[in-house]
């Protein structure tokens, strides 16, 4: 989550100096990691 926060802060900083940007929409979808279904062949 830290990386996402840093990326959004960088985006906000970049947009502050850009007067031509009227609207920015950011969608972040988090998914739970799926359990591994790998089978061991013995």
Topology:
Elements: H1 2-16
Task: Provide tags for this entry.
mainly alpha; about 40 residues
Describe this structure in words.
Helix content is 36%, strand content 0%. The protein starts with a helix and ends in a 26-residue tail after the last helix. With 42 residues, the chain is mainly α. The protein has one helix and no strands.
Write a short abstract of this structure.
It is built from one helix and no strands.
Mean pLDDT: 83
Query: Strand portion, in percent?
Result: under 5%
The residue fraction in helices comes out at 25-40%
Given helix and strand content, the structural type is mainly alpha
User: How many strands, what sense, and barrel or not for the largest sheet?
Assistant: none
Helix and strand pattern: H
Question: N- to C-terminal separation?
Answer: 38 Å
Count of helical regions: 1
Gyration radius over CA = 19 Å
Count the E strands. 0
Shape: elongated
Poorly predicted regions are none
């Amino acid at each position: 989550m830290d990386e996402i926060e840093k990326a959004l802060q960088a985006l906000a900083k970049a947009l502050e100096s850009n007067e031509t940007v009227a609207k920015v929409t950011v969608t972040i979808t988090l998914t739970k990691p799926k359990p591994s279904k790998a089978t061991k062949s013995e």
